[in-house]
Amino acid sequence: MIKPKTTKKETRKELESLVDQFIKKKGTIQQVNMGESGLIDGKYNTSHIGFNEPKQDRTPLNHVVAAIQQRKHTPPTKPQAKKKPKKVIIYDDFGEPLRWIWEE
Questions:
Q1: From start to end of the chain, where are the E strands?
Q2: Which InterPro entries did the record assign (predicted)?
């Protein structure tokens, strides 16, 4: 059985009930200024930003792109279908079937 997705309304209610339980257990909520939690020593944490490395030279691949474009514009060739052997019946002089043979 697939569990139905929770709606935003249900999620909000659950969070509110969790906060109410925390407060009832004598928990305190500390107010923090907006953006303050993302700062380390008053500065933004830039260790995860990927701009620390020097710019690398790119390898030109124009010939690869040209080959791909050429393949797009040429119609694909269909492989030759192998002819399947055909089952043929052999009759005698009186029209009675004798045997089956395979012809290519």
A1: 39-40, 43-44, 86-91, 97-103
A2: SutA_RBD
Q: Is the pLDDT of residue 42 over 70?
A: no
- Owning domain of residue 91: 8-103
Instruction: Write out the DSSP string of 71-94.
Output: HHHSPPPPPPPPPPPEEEEEE-TT
Model confidence over 45-78: pLDDT tens digits? 666 666 667 778 888 899 999 999 988 888 877 8
The whole-angstrom distance between residue 22's C-alpha and the CA centroid of its chain comes to 40
pTM score of the predicted model? 0.32
Question: Does the residue 80 lie in any domain?
Answer: yes
**Torsion angle, alpha carbons of 58, 62, 63, 67, to 10:** 120
Count structural domains, the chain: 1
Residue 1, domain member (yes or no)? no
